[in-house]
Amino acid sequence: MTTEFQDGWELVVGLEVHVELTTRTKMWCGCATTFGDEPNTNVCEVCTGQPGALPVVNERAIHDATLLGLALNGSVAATCWFHRKNYFYPDLAKNYQISQYDVPLIADGYLDVEVPGPDGDVETRRIRIERLHMEEDTGKSLHVGDTGRLHGADRSLIDYNRCGIPLLEIVSRPDIHDPETAQAYLRELQAIVRTVGVSDARMEEGSIRCDANVSVRRPGEELGTRTEIKNLNSVRSLGRAVRYEAKRQIAVLEDGGEIVMQTRHWDESKGVTETLRVKESVTDYRYFPDPDLVAVVSPADKVEAIRSELPELPAATRARLAEAGVAAEQASTIVASELGCWFDDAVAAGADPGAVANWLTGDIAGQLSAAGRSMHDSGLTGAHVAELIGLIEDGTLSTNLAKQVVEGMIEERGAKGPAQIAEERGLQQVSDEGELRAIVEQVVADNAGTVEDIRGGNQKAIGALVGQVMKATKGQADPRKTNELLREAIGT
To answer: What is the pLDDT of residues 200-210, one digit of tens each?
Structure first.
């Protein structure tokens, strides 16, 4: 694998991914973690740092962080501690963040990602994970003004609902050398987080966020000075931001300038990174052990009990789907869209795996998206998908009629199955030979000129007659049977 990014320059990227855990309550208190509630309604003395308020560790959060760490092939610390990371920011009410410092909960993991190689083949690249540590999320700033950002705002408002929500920071080694690998890593990590069920990992809601540490160097040289791009909120933005920042740094160095270690903001609309502040060093945070919290102890037997809860992970699911004959792109879509249980249920009900993958990733996904719905809230089941495919295979439905049946099932939120929808809406395919033969003979009699063209060798003209039959049957004629009967009637 080549690591050259541009004209003899090598790009070096490490990612810091923050994942909010979907626990019922916050990390140190009993406040709710519900997204979208009215501002400053899910707060208490603990998560807003009132004097004398004492935190208590959320045991479920420790469990879920351990589960994710094991899914990422990490080692669990037998004993670890929480520290105070001291800095002022308006949305951090205590003026310090409870985090982990020298001993994280999880260390030395890795994640294998698949990336298209230069020859079009797929390469597997291993990204080492330095640490996964626990901390708490901060509040949310809303900057009121034309720009929606701090610069140019009339005033800023603070919502402390997010303060204290359990947060995991997953820090990779600087093993990424192109934007595509960075994107593949974030996609795979997001899929694993969702698969193990510790977070919904919705980037649009901020429950997974990504910071990118970017530097460039000549191959063989020491690591260059890095900049950090904060709070990238989509896989696409990550790729664009890393590419822009690398090119910016190369231009600075080639002009004889120096890269300054700083934190930068990605402006999606402009497609550029901009300086936020000079990057702090670890000494600026004045870490010290939090005196209000006891150590987290993870006995080996408890770790193994949590390991036994691991589900089938995305890479294994894709491999299993490939063995079943599902195309690689469809397998990736099924995993990324969390459609695996519907696929498995449909196949278990007797449907062909390839047909199930086609319908799940094709018309069903498309119609759900158009309706602003997901499979999770659609009411559809794997049994519905298998029944739909069965109706196509036995000739009850054509592909086009099946699409209308899917529309009906979505409208009914899965309360009615494909056969019931087809019957109630009169969508069954006309495949009765006697009924269809009579319609075909009438169409042949009404289109003598087209029939003569076909007999004269213009076989494509038969499509016009098929269209006439479809019109007469309101699109419900069996196309295969229609073609057979037309050729029989015409004598070709």
So the answer is: 998 888 899 99
